[in-house]
Amino acid sequence: MVLSHAFTLTTTPSLSFNSPMFRYFFSFTTTLILLLAPLCVHAANDKPNFIIIFTDDQGYGDLSCFGSTKIKTPNIDRMAKEGRKFTNFMVASPVCTPSRAALLTGCYPKRVGMHQHVLFPSSTKGLNPTEHTIADHLKGQGYATAAFGKWHLGHHPETLPQKNGFDTYFGIPYSNDMNHPDNKGKPPGRAPGMDVLWKDPESTLTKWRTPLMENEKIVELPVDQRTVTRRYTQKAIDFITTHQKKPFFVYLPHSMPHIPLYVPDEVRDPNPLNAYTNTIEHIDAEVGRLMDKVRELGLSKNTYVIYTTDNGPWLPFKHHGGSAGPLRDGKGSTFEGGQRVPCVMWAPGRIPAGTECDELMGTIDLLPTIAALTGTSLPKDQKIDGLDASSLLTKKVKSPRNEFLYYTSRGDIQGLRQGKWKLLIKTKKKPRNAGKNWKAPAPEILLFDLISDMGEQKNLAEENPKKIKDLTKRMNELDTEIAKNARSPWHKSE
Fold first, then answer.
1. Across the 494 residues of the chain, what is the mean pLDDT of every consecutive 10-residue run?
2. How far apart are CA 199 and CA 440, in angstroms?
3. What Rg do the C-alpha atoms of the chain give, in angstroms?
4. In a shared domain, residues 38 and 109
5. DSSP state for residue 440 in the 8-state scheme
6. Residue 130 has what pLDDT?
7. What's the farthest any 2 CA atoms get from each other in the chain?
8. How far apart, in whole angstroms, are the C-alpha atoms of residue 355 and residue 66?
9. What's the CA angle centered on 272, arms 267 and 278, to 5 degrees?
10. Are residues 299 and 242 in the same domain?
11. What's the domain count of the chain?
């Protein structure tokens, strides 16, 4: 009312600019504006920061805070002690590319056309830059945004991070076992072949031609994989230091522990049987270095740090792969070991320390959750599948998510979780060498109670035919809607 009155007086023609009353109200209004201005700036800078650390092929059982007795992860364990563990956290695909698309867009990969397995150096598509990513959303609020690590959503300039909301990028465009520009010459032999590479650290420069990029330029070919985990981390530290006075978003998708495994020479255990353990413990040390910087800069009270991974462990690589702990199977599988992953969220003063959430949540929920934490709305013109799960970060409440779809690595619908029930309908693909008389066997129908049987050992399908029918119907309804409203990825024009 005072400001309104002052405005009226200052615009009254009979009031002299030299009058005492005018000078009083001018002085009062100016002082008020000066006092309020810092508050407005503070409010703008009060937006929380976000750091998402996203490892590659790390299993549910590969952190000591998730039950590993072999791998020591004191820094991530400290995050869990100071934050919250999520034990029912899902990724939307059991392989790299679709999982990453889901995290950034809040969509099942099929909705954004990124569901049909992983991209290669020969691929001609990528994430469409018209999609609204976490980076797009935060950049629109004035955030500084950066991605440091493995992208794997298209290596063409039109699909790289800077076309998808990130101010800056440093990392490899696809998996570290992919050559450039072709995919020839990879060492054969699964675990034994990886043993040979581990014993020869220089193999990172002689056996692979994976490029390292800065923004849209290749700056190292081949990338020295021994040092990338440390270099990604250092880039993140430098970015946070530079942008500490404004809100920032750092996406840190580590290349490791995807094979081939490499660590710096000075921390390398020469025994290949310890390769995976060595790699995870190196990642943990780098997480510690990053977290120390966050604390040192006084950013703890205003920063959310999320640690998780893109899919389950690559089990055929044995000691070069990880462990799914109590879960069944691993990477490439729609069993829980392929898609339920470890997750720790940290935000002192916001997320209660030393707590655990066993409610259903997934990477597809991160975009709407982050939007809620910043008090903003998502665009209405692009439907997403994620839900606002921000209440799960701070409270002991029921999840807004009661259903979750399972797609194969090739993007075929295969299952639905609803409450405690999980349905899988597994069909056998025709083998390449099958004759013309080959007939597909009947689909394998599996039903599990994940509350009492998280390891999916007891098939309850036979005694629950109605549940099978209901879940199958619902699964097909949801998948049909996604297929009907799916958006196209970016495609390279001929």
1. 35 46 49 44 68 98 98 98 98 98 98 95 96 98 98 97 98 92 71 95 93 97 97 98 98 98 98 98 98 98 98 97 98 98 97 98 98 97 97 97 97 97 92 79 95 98 98 98 98 85
2. 44
3. 25
4. no
5. P
6. 98
7. 102
8. 13
9. 35
10. yes
11. 3
- Which residues are within 8 A (CB) of 7 and not within 5 positions of it... i.e. 6 or more apart? none
Is the CB of residue 385 less than 8 Å from the CB of residue 341?
no
Q: What is the pLDDT of residue 435?
A: 77
The CA-based angle 320-366-385, given to 5 degrees, is 105
Among the listed residues 137, 152, 180, 254, the single catalytic one is 152
* Burial profile 32-45: b = 16 or more Cβ within 10 angstroms, e = fewer: eeeeeeeeeeeeee
Shared domain check, 304 and 279: yes
Q: Is 96 annotated as catalytic?
A: yes
Residues 463 and 337 in one domain: no
The domain of 456 spans 406-491
Of all residues in the chain, what percent are helix, strand and coil, respectively (each to 5)? 35, 15, 50
Residue 327 structure tokens: 């879960």
* CB proximity list for 204: less than 8 A, separation 6 or greater: 222, 223, 224, 225, 226, 260, 262
Q: Which of 101, 104, 130 is nearest to 114 (CA)?
A: 101
Backbone angles phi, psi at 54, to 5 degrees: -130, 100
Question: Whole-model pTM?
Answer: 0.90
The 3-state secondary structure of 245-303, one letter per residue? CCCEEEEECCCCCCCCCCCCHHHCCCCHHHHHHHHHHHHHHHHHHHHHHHHHCCCHHHE
Assign residue 432 the CATH number of its domain: 3.30.1120.10
- Asked if residue 58 and residue 11 are part of one domain, the reply reads no
Residues 90 and 132 in one domain: yes
Which residue, chain included where needed, has tokens 């097909």?
A: 476
Q: What is the CATH number of the domain that holds 353?
A: 3.40.720.10
Question: Do residues 15 and 148 share a domain?
Answer: no
Q: Are residues 378 and 444 in the same domain?
A: no
- From residue 249, give the alpha-carbon distance in Å to each of 133, 146, 363: 12, 6, 16
Q: What angle do CA 386, 392, 398 make, to 5 degrees?
A: 90
Strand segments (E) across 363-464: 403-407, 413-418, 421-426, 444-449
CA distance 312 to 258: 11
Residues 6+ apart with CB under 8 A from 66: 60, 85, 87, 325, 342
Residue found by looking up tokens 């980076």 in the block:
135
Whether 343 sits among the annotated catalytic residues: the reply is: no
Boundary-marking domain end, from 401, 433, 453: 401
Q: What pLDDT is recorded for position 9? A: 34
Torsion of CA 392, 394, 397, 403, to 10 degrees: 0
Q: Residue 77 has which token pair?
A: 């364990």
Which residues lie below 8 Å from residue 61, measured CB to CB, with a gap of 6+?
67, 68, 313, 322, 323, 324, 325, 326, 327
User: Which of 17, 59, 49 lies closest to 341, judged by CA?
Assistant: 59
